[in-house]
Amino acid sequence: MLRAYAICIYIFLYLPISLIVFFSFNAGKYAMSWEGFSLFWYGKAFSNPLIMGALKTSVIIALSTAVLSAIIGTLTALGLERVRGWLRVTFDALIYIAIMVPGIVIGISTLIAFVSLFDVVNPSLASMGIKLQMGTWAVIAAHVLFNIAVVALLVRARLQGMDRSLVDASEDLYATPLGTFRQVVLPLLAPSILAGFLLSFTFSFEDFIIAYFVSGPDTTLPIYIFSSIRRGVTPEINAVGSVVLLTSFVLLIIAQAVLRRGERTTPP
Amino acid sequence: MTKHPDHISASKFIDELRRYQKGSVSRRHFLGVTGLGLATAVLSTAVPGLRPRKAWAGLSGTLNVTTWPNYFSQENYDNFTKQTGVPINVNVFGSNEEMLAKLQAGSTGWDVLVPTNYTISTYKNLDLIEPLDLKLFPSYDPAAQDPRFLGPGTIDGVTYAVPKDWGTTGFIVNTKATTENPTSWKEFFALAQGPLSGKATVHDYQLTTIGSAAKALGYGFNTVDKNELAEIEKLLVATKPHLFAVTSDYQPAMRNGDAAMAMCWTNDAAQLNRDMPEMSYRLGKDGGEIWVDHYAVIKGAPNREAAYAFLDFILTPDINAKEIEAHGTPTTDSRVLKLLPESILKNPILYPAADQLTALEYGAAETLTNPDRAELMARFKSA
Amino acid sequence: MRGSRPGMMNLSMASTSRPKLVTTLLLLPAGLFFVFLLLVPLAVVLIFSFGERAPAGGYMPAFTLQNYMDLPARGKAFFNTLTLAPLGTLLTALFAFPMAYFLAVKVSPKWRVTLLILVMAPFWTSQLLRYYAWMMILGNKGIPGWLAMVGLDVRIINTPWAVLIGAVYGFLPLMVPPIYVSLEKLDKRLLEASADLGATPARTFWQVTLPLALPGVATGSMLVFILLMGDYILPQFLGGGKVFFIGNALVDLFLQSRNWPFGAAVSVALVAIMFVTIYVYMRFVLSKTDTRRAALV
């Protein structure tokens, strides 16, 4: 009976996704009435400068976010291992606040804080020909904030579960602290850093609401898809969605393979 | 035709000649626009010519245009990029309020925007758009514009925005889904609460939703009177549970039959009716909105030169005609009118009988910033 | 001495300054982010919530409590969010539990991870497009259309039901993994022992399996609850402007009516509600799961 339930859940999860993929091959103009098989919309999507531009913006944002979050989040987890007392408590609190404050409030607060700041500083910067404004950088900054917290938690969980004797052994062998870090700690942390990197990339690539508030004149893929859905989707968007879907499946499988190898080399 | 983006039509040539004779364009412009076409224009209706490339030389960067959904011809925009080397980045918005909100929220990276008539004075007062330098886009000819639509873009004699196209706000009825035959906003709201309960949509837009409800109650479209607004809120809130949705993006719901009646703009009506003849567009006989959308240039636009080159390009009659054909919104330019096919000119959705237009009103600037209307709309939506 | 020091990297020698410098450098980037992108902006929101709307929209400095007194004008949005978000979380947990149990207990280890990834994978695809697909499935040409053929007049799209279906659909991929992780730790010998001692399967489930899974359920629920409380896309797409959440009200206030101070007050209220709820939840649920686990071992 549980097996039947599981099958139902898989159908439930994949039915809408298969609809998206199915209609990406639709020859007709409207996303949900079938008029024959065609690859027309794939060609159309990939020659649409708006879609490609939005895709590029999203990839830049997601990659920058993932790299920055993975680095800063790992540094934070390592740093927190070295402190106690008020600093530790404060950082723990900040990490939880960053995760608990809804994305929409992060978007709003970033927006109004920076717009107010720009209103003050832009007049004096104008003489230098500089004009600060919202844009891709603001999306990256707001995404990194949230994802630092995610990566820090993931890496810390790994650190706490780590076998201390390895570090001790390394030190007994007179490895320099940096050498110990590079040769012992980093490889042990790698799976969780990678997991954090992937999660950050996904959250960032998928995010609509924060970007909606702070992206200024820049358009990300979710913002483009949002406005397309509002005005009635053509199979063009289904085509882009299907390609993104395929890419993320491939990445997911690769990531899983890497993570598994990581697990095998480090018995829990 | 699309293979020769540089053609000039005979009628355009004549237009240019007249303008030149009238002195409304410079000789340089006249020769520039007509160019090589001069010799052959009399021989054929469409021949390759030259655009005034000189004005467009030395452009670089990207042009950021903000407009409404389904409101431009991608082909035209691609041609602009081909001719100037400047790619266009398009942002679309759901309402004027959203556009203003984004501008106020520091989205200052845009160059060209498409404001509706009633918002222009506010943009000007907030110092968000610049007075247009008409010399920089000679293809725009005020003399060719329908004088009905020239008012909103000009403030104290200074042109801040030039007309793009005009239209109306009425409602569309799927005559296959219902036998009801509403002709006024009063009937619209009565039907929405009654026989078409669960099947009607209104805009997610204060101007038209509050305005049309005001007309149903016999008030002015632009009312900001607190007592009248209170009555309007009662009507809207009473209608809310019966509505299918509160949305400005009603095309999908009308197409798949979720909705049978929707508050609707000209261009959406034309597009729906083009694909589904059973879609019938009506103007409320008790009133409603007539609107003109404009092109304006943002103050401090990062790519000001390209913005003006874009205006010059897009307002060139034959190019503008392609715009109109793509999105189905009536033009304000008599030169463009001559280039449009019969099917568009005879379409009663685009060009309703003149007597139907008399009851319609322009939106008033006050409605854009009036806090009571904004709050009423927000309360209606969250009701 | 080594063993008494906290942490795993023995770089820290509290008496020397270099390790302190290292610690500072490690924590500085995150510290800067937390200060300038979290604390300062949240403080700005708090300050703005006492201000007034400028005549053309935006913010005007003032000190008034009016924005907080106006909160009841968004009562329905708060009500919808505060009922549908917990309900959606609960339903998601209910649907996720048997799935996680199946994966952790019934599936052979060889297939477990693959099948788990299949549950999570939808989360890696465009949320917007997935909800769009549901708009079609729940719309006139979808399930209600088929039901109409057998004479049933059912409306789902733009009702709270559609939002709940969307919540379960959207967040199941996030709820299953944490429950799976806690169930996977479940020692099967415990189940056998329980059975050997004469416990019925139901009793075993209630007294052994469920308590063990609770931490996972608690983690997953918190995650889903946080996301649902601030959601905008789900009520926008499947609620059609009829099932209004706080998120929709906020988008309206900032991107339509440009009433920043009122929007700030709504944001403060939302964050306050979340902090209180989560605090109570952690106190109540998490402490309870801990004691039960302790009692079991």
* First-to-last CA distance of chain C: 32 Å
Strand segment count of chain C: 2
Kindly report the oligomeric state of this protein: heterotrimer
Task: Give the % helix of chain C.
Answer: over 70%
Strand and helix order of chain C: HEEHHHHHHHHHHH
Structure class of chain C = mainly alpha
Which fold does the CATH topology of chain C refer to?
A: MetI-like fold
Taken together, the total number of domains of chain A comes to 1
Overall form of chain C: globular
Largest sheet of chain C: 2 strands, antiparallel
- What would you say the CATH architecture of chain C is? Orthogonal Bundle
Helix content of chain A: over 70%
The backbone outline of chain A, from C-alpha atoms, is: globular
Give the C-level CATH assignment of chain C. Answer: Mainly Alpha
User: Within the CATH hierarchy, at the fold level, what is the topology of chain A?
Assistant: MetI-like fold
H and E order of chain A: HHHHHHHHHHH
CATH architecture of chain A: Orthogonal Bundle
Q: Structural class per helix/strand content of chain A? A: mainly alpha
Number of spatially distinct domains of chain C: 1
Q: Give the uncertain stretches of chain C in residue-range form.
A: 1-15, 291-297
